[in-house]
Design goal:
By secondary structure, this protein is mostly helical. The chain has helices spanning 2-11, 15-57, 63-69, 78-88, 94-103, 119-145, 148-155, 160-171, 173-189, 192-196, 202-212, 216-241, 252-256, 265-295, 304-337, 341-350, 358-383, 397-420, 424-432, 437-466, 469-474, 482-491, 499-523; strands spanning 58-59, 261-262. The protein contains 23 helices and two strands. A two-stranded parallel sheet has the order 1-2. The longest helix has 43 residues, at 15-57. It is globular, with a radius of gyration of 25 Å. The mean pLDDT is 84.
Length: 524
């Protein structure tokens, strides 16, 4: 429904709107978005592939510690990283202060320095927190490859770097494309970071066209263009992985016992430094900057607006978690018990929401809900002479609806993985012992699926807690979540005022990251 609403509004709008969008908005904002996607993709590929290969194929100092730690930047939302980097690279920040003290400069006119509020600054911020998507995908692929193909290549005279470039990277291409597609979708979805850093992307253009210029039709038309980009990314990802499947003949135990390439001396130091650098930039700098602000504002923990924002965040994120887990469970259970085309198609269609940028989804949700509200209000005015107001679009329902559409795929995927671990023979054995289908579900499957259900709900809750683009567009008046509270203060040039809320978001985001890190540590 959100996608259909966007295309209906966009295609039925005044043709002059299309002319304005195609001539003025798309060329400028589209070009900036393209460069942001390209350079962020290159940077995340370099660090994601490089660190994944080092921890999976080599042995060097601190490898076992760095392997799970490389996931930590995923806990930092891009907009919080942008606010932290803005303070860190500011004239009064620690970096420029140390630079002036080192070289004896007294004012900004005496030297030139990297401008964080630029396209290159946005690339730095986005790649610093998004490279773990590529790292996670490639690390698993490198581990599953084992060293059989690499050892054969070495017997034919190839060196380590040639083996990496000619054998291991091509074999990891499916994982690389999956990771890069996720990176680009997250980059396309961002609005807080690019707005704060002064980079007018397509996402920001939707927000600006709708809220600042009052043109819903123009925003919908830009959203149509962004949806075309999302489809293009998915098509390119599918095409790049076509006929690029490689099977490993090694068992898990054989892969675990594979001997890694030993790196000692300067090589070992370089490998450790290469892995430490993205952790330092993507996690420790934002935590130290925002944590430093929060420590000086501990009284804010009892501030009414923070408590209200925390309650609103918990309310809408909790509701979205419950809804997505219930719907995800119905879908995955339907696929398990009834492998019809309808059940499989419904499951796949329901998982498409994650690919829709939050701003696009916000427009697609608001349009039909507002139309329904207006229809109900008009009917009540004619029949009863009373107004119902905005029952759906003017409440938190719209936010919960958008969260549920966007994050249903997380719940569905987690529950499907849980079902995959339960043999179908469990269902059959229960039925032969006289249990009905509902009894089997209640007494056998649900108890065994409890960890998957809790994990799915937790993942959706935390992602909803961090969601900014859709929340900005759909929130009612005087309704702040933790994410929008931070966004408002940063928009006024005072990100330190909401540093406590930022730290709460980061600590919440650490929970799934710790779960992933523990899993990586066990694999290692």
């Amino acid at each position: 429904m959100p996608i259909a609403a966007i295309f209906v509004i966009g295609m039925t709008a005044d043709p002059e709107n299309w002319q304005h969008v195609l001539l003025n908005v798309i060329p400028r904002a589209g070009l900036r978005t393209l460069w942001l996607l390209v350079f962020t993709g290159i940077a995340t590929a370099i660090f994601g592939i490089g660190t994944a290969w080092l921890v999976a194929s080599c042995d060097f100092p601190l490898r076992r510690l760095l392997s799970p730690a490389l996931v930590l930047p995923l806990a930092i939302p891009s907009y919080l990283a942008a606010y932290a980097f803005g303070e860190f690279f500011d004239f009064t920040g620690p970096l420029q202060t140390a630079y002036r003290a080192l070289f004896g400069f007294r004012s900004a006119r005496d030297y030139s320095f990297f401008d964080i509020r630029s396209l290159s600054g946005a690339v730095l911020v986005m790649s610093a927190v998004l490279y773990p998507y590529v790292y996670l995908a490639c690390r698993s692929m490198f581990l599953m490859q084992g060293r059989a193909a690499a050892d054969v290549a070495r017997t034919l005279g190839a060196g380590p770097l040639r083996v990496f470039a000619r054998i291991q990277v091509p074999m990891a291409r499916p994982a690389i494309m999956i990771g890069l597609t996720l990176v680009m979708m997250e980059t396309l979805n961002d609005i807080g970071a690019v707005e704060y850093l002064g980079v007018q992307t397509l996402t920001f253009s939707i927000y600006d066209t709708w809220l600042n210029r009052g043109s819903l039709a123009g925003a919908a038309q830009i959203a149509c263009f962004m949806l075309a980009i999302v489809v293009l990314l998915l098509v390119v990802e599918r095409h790049a992985r076509k006929r690029q499947r490689f099977a490993s003949h090694k068992t898990t135990a054989m892969v675990a016992n594979t001997v890694r390439l030993k790196l000692t001396g300067l090589k070992g130091i370089f490998a450790a430094t290469f892995c430490i650098f993205p952790i330092l930039v993507g996690f420790f700098i934002p935590v130290l900057v925002l944590g430093g602000f929060a420590l000086r504002r501990l009284d804010d923990f009892l501030e009414p607006r923070l408590l209200d924002a925390l309650w609103h965040s918990t309310l809408v994120a909790g509701a979205a978690a419950v809804i997505t887990v219930v719907i995800g469970f119905v879908l995955t259970y339907a696929v398990r018990t009834d492998r019809s085309r309808i059940a499989v198609a419904a499951s796949r269609i329901a998982s498409l929401g994650y690919g829709i940028p939050g701003t696009v989804l916000g427009i697609g949700v608001l349009i039909p809900l507002a139309s329904l509200d207006n229809a109900v209000d008009g009917l009540l005015r004619q029949t009863l002479g009373m107004s119902s107001g905005l029952l759906l679009s003017g409440t938190g329902f719209a936010i919960v609806y958008a969260y549920s559409v966007r994050f249903l795929t997380m719940a569905e995927g987690t529950l499907d993985a849980g079902f995959q671990k339960l043999s179908p023979h469990l269902d059959m054995a229960a039925r032969t012992l006289g249990r009905t289908g509902p009894q089997t579900l209640r007494q056998i499957l649900l108890p065994n699926l409890k960890p998957a259900v809790l994990t799915a709900g937790l993942l959706v809750f935390i992602e909803a807690l961090k969601e900014l683009p859709a929340t900005i567009l759909l929130r009612p008046f005087n309704f702040n979540t933790l994410a929008t509270l931070v966004y408002e203060d940063a928009s006024r040039g005072m990100p330190q005022s909401a540093s406590v809320a930022a730290i709460i978001i980061i600590f919440a985001g650490l929970i799934p990251v710790i779960l992933v890190s523990r899993s990586l540590d066990e694999q290692g």
